[in-house]
Design brief:
Residues 1-26 form the signal peptide. The protein is of the alpha+beta class and 185 residues long. The chain has helices spanning 2-18, 158-184, and strands spanning 30-34, 40-41, 47-52, 62-66, 79-81, 84-88, 96-105, 111-120. A hairpin with a 5-residue loop joins strand 7 and strand 8 (111-120).
Length: 185
């Protein structure tokens, strides 16, 4: 009878570990933005507003706007209000595609960064001027306004974490079974 209960308990624990876990709540992420990702706006915006899931630390919040030629567009510093960061755009935007890149720090101190694009398509405005020739950095690659602006998470993949959890439960279950067998004999 005890063996069946132990086996059932081990199977239940294993099943719980195999259920996908929710993302860690300590990591911040972008909830929404104005202009939105991939938006095609009919009039040039005068600001960019990013809404995150958690409060932002004004000291560690960076928001950069660049044009299709990867040139930084003049903006004011990020204004932070709770979980919202806003930059004011200092000059009218011409028609074209723009990239918003951001870097914030989560409550656990982990940096979170990402970027997205939007397009200004104002029928009464002129098109953006063509980009200048690309500049080259010391590493030989093109210069960019924000290094590594893809959304990144440097933590271990969730598959590795799940596999580690399964291994821990399996070892604990095996140890428990060995202990009980030795105790009964």
């Amino acid at each position: 009878m005890r063996t069946r209960i132990t086996a059932a308990l081990a199977a239940l624990l294993t099943a719980l570990l195999l259920v996908p876990a929710t993302p860690a709540s300590a990591h911040n992420s972008l909830r929404s933005a104005t202009p939105a990702q991939d938006a095609r706006v009919p009039t040039a915006p005068t600001s960019v507003t990013l809404h995150f899931l958690q409060r932002l630390d004004p000291q560690f919040t960076t928001i950069v706007l660049s044009d299709a030629g990867r040139r930084k567009v003049p903006t004011g510093p990020p204004a932070v209000d709770g979980a919202t960061g806003t930059i004011a755009i200092d000059q009218p935007l011409a028609n074209g595609t723009y990239t918003v890149a951001y870097r914030v720090v989560s409550a656990d101190g982990h940096p979170v960064q990402g970027s997205y694009r939007f397009t200004v398509a104002d029928p009464s405005a002129s098109a953006a001027s063509p980009p200048p020739p690309a500049t080259v950095t010391g590493s030989g690659g093109p210069a960019s306004p924000v290094a590594n602006s893809g959304s990144g998470d440097d933590g271990p993949p969730s598959v590795l974490l799940a596999a580690g959890g399964v291994a821990v439960v399996a070892v604990a279950g095996a140890a428990l079974l060995l202990f009980r067998r030795r105790r009964s004999s």
